[in-house]
């Protein structure tokens, strides 16, 4: 696997691209795989690795799929793209559309998109529309508009999204020298678990790995349609990125779970926030709440002693913590303002936990 070059070039032989596909790039991929010693100590798992996808250009894993999707839209002569989004897809689509010179419309659930993501979509010049409804309502609308020929749909029902996102699995195999025993990943619209599984299957078939990992996906308790076996009409969770009640890639997520001998399970908002604080405070890695669902799931399974035979784990941290400053701030005490003297600052430091 070539070490340098843009994602499309590095993985061209594994992607549905041609020499005519534009080599669009913002520097996506090649994200750090960071060892997590405190999580190893707590869970008793020999190796825990964090795939820090928040280091992508717009701060989430979406960039891997979006670069391929927008490049193919350009190649096919499209002039505009559209998506529904809980925020990160919108930020990524807006950035790559700006880069490619395409117009972009993003349809968001009003009041439930983290501030950083909304700010990005605006900064990148997308047409931003908020609907009074959930992500799932917005998704129905954009499918209708795309079917009417108004724009190219760039949600993960677009197969180029999954193709681009599977490259993260290749990178994991490359850095570790093989696939891990298990992959822990948050599940929202279920595109990413689908993409990683496709990547690991191809990696094993193509000699990049000798085995395939068990896939463990995690949904928030208030937005867990796959676990509960039915769509959730009014999904709710602090992890707004995965506030999704009727995932588009439901069937392929279940296939990834079953074919890999894994599981898709529930983590509570409290478990998510606990893992979120642990990652930042004890590992020095600041992800967004939805991303911490992967680590919440690992910790929950460790507590239940449900990690038999699992010695090397990768947790996918899908998005950057800076995406959602409001959640971070809501968990911390209000800033104390004191006089600029050593005595007052010393006292103020000692007064904090
Ligand atoms: C940080 O942006 O669905 O299961 O519209 O932003 O592939 O949906 C985001 C999803 C996990 C879940 N972590 O991935 C959107 C959107 C973060 C995310 C997920 C999302 P999928």
Structure, described:
The protein has 353 residues and is α/β, with parallel strands linked by helices. Helix content is 43%, strand content 14%. It is built from 15 helices and 10 strands. The protein has helices at residues 7-10, 37-43, 62-75, 88-100, 115-123, 135-147, 159-165, 167-176, 191-205, 225-228, 250-260, 269-283, 289-303, 325-330, 342-351; strands at 33-35, 47-52, 80-84, 103-109, 127-131, 152-153, 182-186, 214-220, 263-267, 312-317. The strands form 2 sheets. It has a 6-stranded mixed beta sheet with strand order 1-2-10-7-8-9, sandwiched between helices. A 4-stranded parallel beta sheet has the order 5-4-3-6. Helix 4 links the parallel strand 3 (80-84) and strand 4. Helix 9 packs across helix 11 (250-260) and helix 12 (269-283) packs across helix 13 (289-303). It is globular. The chain starts with 6 loop residues before the first helix and ends with a helix. The relative contact order is 0.15. Ligand AN7 is lined by residues 60, 85-89, 156, 186-192, 241-242, 288, 290-291, 318-319.
